Amino acid sequence: MTARYIPEYTYEDYKQWEGDWELIDGVPIAMAPSPVSEHQMLLSRIAYELEKSLEECDECFVLVEEDWKIDEKNVVRPDISVVCGELTDFIQKAPFIIVEIVSPSSATRDEDIKFAMYAEEGVEYYILVYPKDYKAKVYKLKDGKYRKIGDFLSEKVKLEGKCDVAIDFANVFRKLKKLKNAVH
């Protein structure tokens, strides 16, 4: 059996592609079609919580589904990023916070590949949100590794940095829970 050649791509290639992609170690990864409603609802509710929290902070910004060009062979599109400092056309340095809403199709990428990548790149806080469980797992970078702060179902979490951020997960999950209960 002969080894197959797997082409490696760069950011220049990535810019030419149609559709939604991420580039990890030069390997293109197609993103799923438009996320389902619960994903979009959580995305907007978490972004809103972050925006409220950063209202008085002029240094940090909430970005939704914005490309982060890590290097020529790695471009990812986190669901939500909080970046501090100068705002450019796309994210060019490690965000302060990244939130990924985990779906069955993205679980391995979010929990393993991006988990390691974001730690290596110095993302201070990484939050994984699980819509089916109404749960968020919050991690803080310490000594180059993520340490779990905790699982949040309806509690508030405070994340300290240039501008402190608070997320009330009771507010985040409230409408989604109401919708699910109304259906059953």
What composes the largest sheet? 6 strands, mixed
Q: Any idea what the shape is?
A: globular
Give me the oligomer status. Answer: single chain
Using only C-alpha atoms, the radius of gyration works out to: 17 Å
Domain Putative restriction endonuclease: 12-150
InterPro entries: Nuclease_put_TT1808, Restrct_endonuc-II-like, Uma2
Explain the overall architecture.
- This protein is an alpha+beta fold.
- The protein has helices at 11-14, 37-53, 107-121, 169-183; strands at 21-24, 27-30, 60-64, 68-71, 74-76, 80-84, 97-101, 125-130, 135-142, 145-152, 156-159, 165-168.
- The protein has one domain (35-183): tt1808, chain A (Alpha-Beta Complex), CATH 3.90.1570.
- 28% of the residues lie in helices and 33% in strands.
- α2 packs antiparallel against α4 (169-183).
- The relative contact order is 0.14.
- The model has no long low-confidence stretch (mean pLDDT 90).
